[in-house]
Amino acid sequence: MIGLIATIIIMILIFGLLGWAIRYKKAYFLISGFESRSEEEKQELIENGLPQKTGGLLLLTAAVMLLLLPLLCTPFKYAIEFQFGGMLVFLMGGVIYLSKYEVPRKRKRSYMISISLFIAVVGSITALTLYSYQGYQLIVKEEQFEITGMYGDEWRIKDIKKVELMETMPQVKAKTNGVGLPTLSKGHFKVKDYGSSLLFIQKEASPYIYIELEDRKIFINDKNSNKTREWFQQLKEKAENTK
């Protein structure tokens, strides 16, 4: 969490400094594509107020992110999504609004590009987030067990070295390749005392199943504790019968 807060603070500083430089120091060269314009277009854009308002948009974005920052220190589960989602919608929505200050002959094209970009980026992130929140199942078969969904796979039951039911999840130290959401950890993480591990964890939903394979360590549970215990019994019995 400290690393996340530090990252957001750095982003706030970057947006704030860029906005201040553009808005108050007339550092218009910091705006993408501005320097490649003709002198006539540059002057027209300045008269329309586009570069000045671009700086203002960056400053406002920094202010919004700063106002939302305390949410990360509250029990609100979706503070991260609210922070980055708010930033994205505010910033990209502002870019669409600023198209009205484009030179008249390029205004329609600017609207089309900014709206298309907004739809593509917001749509892609929304789809990825929804896909990340999709559930998973632990399915015990005759010789394999499978974990479905993103980051899921099949493993041989005879490769299981240990199956344990834990009431407390060990500390997750870092994400290496996965999805870390307020209520869910899915993918590859580093876990204290266990090292690199594959997680399918519903946070604050004890108990947790620990599966140790020849070359993999897995933690998995379900929101429903009874379902988690059912998975554990099925996998433990199958592993014992396979030996």
Automatic annotation (TrEMBL):
Domain of life, per lineage: Bacteria
InterPro entries found in the cross-reference section: Bacterial_PH-related (IPR027783), UCP037672 (IPR017259)
Signal peptide: none
Pfam families found in the cross-reference section: bPH_5, DUF3784
Parts forming coiled coils: none
Residue ranges crossing the lipid bilayer per the database entry: 6-22, 55-72, 78-99, 111-133
Swiss-Prot/TrEMBL keywords: Membrane, Transmembrane, Transmembrane helix
Keyword Membrane annotated: yes
Location of the Bacterial Pleckstrin homology domain: 138-226
Record-given protein name: DUF3784 domain-containing protein
Organism encoding this protein: Cytobacillus dafuensis (Bacillus dafuensis)
